[in-house]
Specification:
44% helix; Rossmann fold; alpha/beta; 12 helices; 324 residues; 6-stranded parallel beta sheet; 434 Repressor (Amino-terminal Domain)
Length: 324
Amino acid sequence: MATIKDVAKMAGVTVTTVSRVLNNRGYISEKTRNKVAEAMKELQYQPNEIARSLYRQKSNIIGLIIPTVAHSFFGELASHIEYYAYECGYKILLCNSHLNRKKEKEYVEMLKRHKVDGILMGSHTLEIDEYLNLNLPIVTFDRQITNSIPFVSSDNFEGGRLAANLLIQKGCRKIAHISGNLSLNMLSNKRYEAFIIEVVANRVEHITVQTEVDVFDIPQNERLIYNMFKEYPDIDGVFTSDITAVQVIQACSRLNKRIPEDIKIIGYDDIQLASLIVPQLTTIRQPMAEMSKRAVELLIKQINGKEVLMENIFPVRLVERNTT
């Protein structure tokens, strides 16, 4: 395997010159750059990225920790983040935590060992001090860990208000909100807060059904939905996340509940699946691409030592389709 010394010898330059070419440091003539490039090509030389990152004190790699890329929301989120990071000259190291504290801790340690320049967090199970002690730029997505770490989120409160109001306007008299586990300190809890304010103000009967801590357990959520309909067969409106809303649509089909005649359903996110399922899902759209871009920008600004805005909340929009 060729070494940097072999490249220097073939190009007729010093090892220091080859290093300066690799790290784009100092003035190097175009002629010299070409000679080094030709030598690298002929020798099939692959530079040691870890060594280069130690020299430059920058790896141009960003860690992304999410619960699971198999979930449509986080799959689309990861795709957007990778796109904008690449546009800015960064690569992504993707980690699926599966909401496992031990696994997330191991991934965080791995990212530190690989000298990532910063971490985007779409999952957090560790204690706050464990994040603060990382000494790395961090941006969180849809969760606020502490006032000293910037976060990106949609306006969950407004989304909950829009959803509740639409179901009320459509004549729903018993509305179910299927939320995440409200014991978790998530910004999505604000959807529940707004929902409760609206249904109480309008004197509409309502129930709240919480998922378990692992909100991504599809079979578990399916059982939760069937139990909900068994206990409250007169529910005529449901507000929940897009993926869970799709499961509600499936349950309604099996239970012979007509949509939207017997029951109206509103999701939250506007993932691609929302417009593909039949009937197409009415949902609250959060601007995932714009939010992903802002998250990458915030992280890169921190990497470059610049101050950033801690609270980054994006407006949501009601997208009405066939389930209401």
